[in-house]
Amino acid sequence: MAFTSFVRAFHVKLLRALYKINAPKDFYLLFLASIIGTLSGFGAYLLNLIIDGVKFGLFDFIGKDLFPGSINNYLRILFPAIGGLSVGLLTFYLSPEVKGHGIPGVMDAVANKGGFIRRRVALLTSITSGLTLGSGGSAGKEGPIVQIGSAIGSGIGQLFRVSQQRLKILAGCGAAAGLAAVFNAPIAGVVFAIEVILADFSLTVFTPIVISSVIATAISRYMIGSSPFFAIPTYALHSFSELPLYMLMGFAGGVLSVIFIVTLYKVEDIFEDNLKLPIFIKPAIGGLLTGIIAYWFPELYGFDDTATHTALVGRPEILILGILIFAKILATSFTLGSGGTGGLFTPSLFIGAMFGAMFGTIVGHLFPDIAAPPGAYALVGMGVIVAGTIHAPLSALLIIFEVTADYKIILPLMLGTVTSTLVARWLKKDSIYTMKISLFSNRTVDGRNQDILQTHHIQSIINKNAMPILNKASFDEILSTLMSSRYNSFPVVNSGNKVIGVIAMRDIRPVLFDRELAPLLLATDVMSENIFVAHPQETLGSALDKMEISDSEILPVVDTTETMNYIGVISREDIIKQYRKESLLMTDQKD
Amino acid sequence: MRLTDILLNDYIKIPIDAKDRDEAIKELVMLLGQFNIIDDTDQAYKAVLDREKIMTTGVGNGIAIPHCKDSSCPNFAVAMGVHTKGLNFESIDKKDVRIVFLLVGPENNPGLHIKLLSRISRLMSNEDLRDELLECKTADEALNLLQEEENYYFDLD
């Protein structure tokens, strides 16, 4: 393709030019990140346009102009079903991965597929989520926009043929940019990408993601406006005796979050397994059910923020709040469980606001002297439910800060989000995202695919050429072995070739320049005892765990732990390389 | 931690009576053994000798630092002895050894082991201090000298 070959030629020229001017090493990555930020910012705007367009077409044009009067009210039941049917047909014929709430797909791509996302996902997700949300489906924009942003990031990365490592970072850039743009929340975007999508807090990851997030937010502010997502009064902690109440709310919120997660996946199971219908009909049925619920409670439509807003400004009625919590859980489960495309953040915010307002009203009656107004609890409640569903307290509290621009409520918010995350994790190991990944793909722990780590053995990657150091070796011999090798640590063996310890670079650093002492030291003096050794049948995962716990770069490999006969060395680097290759093989590279 | 935190005046013997290297090592091992610093003195003695046989710890200038990392020595400890005439440690400069530091410690802390060895060797590179130590008549005198000198250095960790 002409465009692709143009990009490739440009890419080569750019890299050579950067080298010539001695640019910072990750300058190229930052350049790509800024492209991704720009495209994702416009992507968010485009998504808004599609949603508003569909909504206008159905609710305003067909609803009010063509069928004015009472018919309009009944038509509202059908709108989400129409949206659902169109989504069903599109996903069925074009791309199955765009259905659902988006973020698990991105997490899966980053953890298991080296950041590879099909390019068409960006476009299709915009359309299907625009249809789902514009037709009234109960979901949010954030899941789709994160998916769109990541697909843009991954697409740019593929176009410029970056390494797997960088492809993941670029997918994360897109995710951050998307979230930042829809919520006008640049910090939350960055933290969400780092905490949830990449699960990698290193500095190399941080800079490009910040750049994407800043650019996308700026574009979104210019195109849409810069006021916070929810404009509400400022709330603060009323008295310190309130803190236990917030903690209690965190507890209850953790339980409610788990109820939400379980309901969503239960409904999804029913739609997927128990309902014997063509796949493209299912979202239509989900839409119809959502439409029926929303007939009585129009505030459940995904594009409608008024209920959340009302709860935040504090005009709640307990009964309505209680009903809305569960009605929203059901409506969202129907919309997304049946195959509609949309996000879970906004529904979590909605549920959290209702739950918090209800909790706040109750404690306001019980402890009128110490409790802040219910609006304050609604605010913290949003953080509590978001944290409980996505298991990411930092992202949850930052997003609340940024969507409400209320920084005074930090203590209750921190306490609530952490408590709720703990409780939710304790009740159910998986978050609302990882549960999906566990279901449709492989078990992913700490961003790594456990299926690869637990089924592959280290046998084939043992380095048998790595020379061990003899316990009698002099300091000079140790030094020369160290300098001529690619490892930073070495096993030490005795004259019977049995492994008796390890020498790491960090062990000998203190004496490197000690001219008097160094010549008198032997390997046996500077070695540390073995904390762990590996055997050939050990899995990649188990060897990696041992290295991570003992903070070592290599493990000596022995035939058995009884005899301790030296076979070779296995390094963390080799395990990671092997893991990446295996995970690449698992990736479906078709486009 | 400093060298003089673990080298107590009880662990300093002036003079030592040994007739040769092995006896000197044994004498200092037994000295530490008296204060229950070493769980198994025979095992520790053997470990120090084994190490000594691979390569001498006679660092020159009349100083030797025999040492071992062994399971019989759960805690780091240093003993010191001064010999009136001098012993043959097969030192690198062939000189007889008059000041012997014995260092024992556990197997799992090579970092501190090396730091202690390094601290002893640095202190003993001071010729005046060596001469003054050889003049000392009591453990207290020797310990005071070492403490004074060590005040110029930073703590080990």
Explain what the structure shows:
The complex is a heterodimer of chains A (591) and B (157). Chain A has 591 residues and is mainly alpha-helical. Chain A folds into three domains: 2-229, Clc chloride channel; 240-450, Clc chloride channel, CATH 1.10.3080.10; 455-583, CBS-domain, CATH 3.10.580.10. Chain A is 64% helix and 5% strand. Chain A is built from 24 helices and seven strands. Chain A has helices spanning 2-20, 27-66, 70-93, 103-112, 120-134, 142-159, 164-183, 186-198, 203-223, 243-274, 282-296, 306-313, 318-337, 345-366, 374-390, 393-404, 410-427, 434-440, 450-455, 475-483, 505-508, 523-526, 540-550, 572-586, and strands at residues 444-445, 448-449, 469-470, 489-493, 499-504, 554-558, 566-571. In chain A, strand 4 (489-493) and strand 5 form a beta hairpin. In chain A, helix 4 crosses helix 18 (434-440). The longest helix of chain A is centred in the N-terminal third of the chain and has 40 residues, at 27-66. Chain A starts with a helix and ends in a 5-residue tail after the last helix. In chain B, strands 1, 2, 3, 4, 5 and 6 form a six-stranded mixed β-sheet that branches. Chain B has helices at residues 3-6, 21-34, 41-54, 110-123, 127-135, 139-150, and strands at 12-13, 58-60, 63-64, 67-69, 77-87, 97-105. Chain B has six helices and six strands; from the N terminus they run αβααβββββααα. The N and C termini of chain B lie close together (6 Å). Chain B is an alpha/beta fold and 157 residues long. At the A-B interface, helix 22 of A face helix 4 of B.
